[in-house]
Write a structure and sequence with these properties.
The chain is mainly α. Helix content is about 100%, strand content about 0%. It has a domain at about 105-253: Helix Hairpins, CATH 1.10.287.950. The protein is built from 2 helices and no strands.
Amino acid sequence: MAGVEVVLPYLIEGAALIALAAGAAALWGKRAQTHAREAARAQDAAHAAALAQAQAHHTAQQEDAAREHESLAAQIESLRAELAQRRSVADALEAALASERAQRDDAMQHAARIASEASRLKLMSSTFERWHEQMISLMAQNNDMHKKNQELSSIVSHVLIVSLNASIEAARAGAAGRGFSIVAGEVRSLATRSQELSKSYRDSLNRNDLITAATFQDIQAGGKMIAATLASVEASTQQLHHQLEATRAGALA
């Protein structure tokens, strides 16, 4: 019993130490758990902050991407509008060029028609010149025929005078000059008819002179009109050709 009494205080002290150690261990465990929880909380907070930062960065990147997308869309829309405007301008230029080509072709055809008409006018002018020369020759022939008719009239008058003298001489001769009187009468009759024919011929020549003079004046006036028209047509043709050449040079430039 004495031995138990001796050992019992040591056992009690050991148990107290063990209990103290267990309490200390429990306290340390609680503190460790607290520290672990605080560390976990701190780590969670750090993770949450990092996640929030990452989300903020991602949101900022999305916003930047959205702004870039909007800017790019605006640029694309601007390029589309500019392309449409250029296409419209190109279509307008092409239409203007087509219209100009059509006008140039029409002008070329018009110039060709004018040149053809000018050629015809030249031929008509040559014809009028030939008529002019022929009318001058005809008037000269009429003057020559007037002179010859005057000579014929003078001869007929002289024959009439001779026939009258012959008739007078035949009358003086009496019966012996009867045959000569008949011949003189026939000569006088022929001379009278020739005189009438010469007068008619002179009247015809006078009328022919009037017609020839009027025709000659008309031919001269027509020739002058054709010459003036031809000069105007040639000037218009040259001016049209110059305009076409200038237009072609401008189109090539």
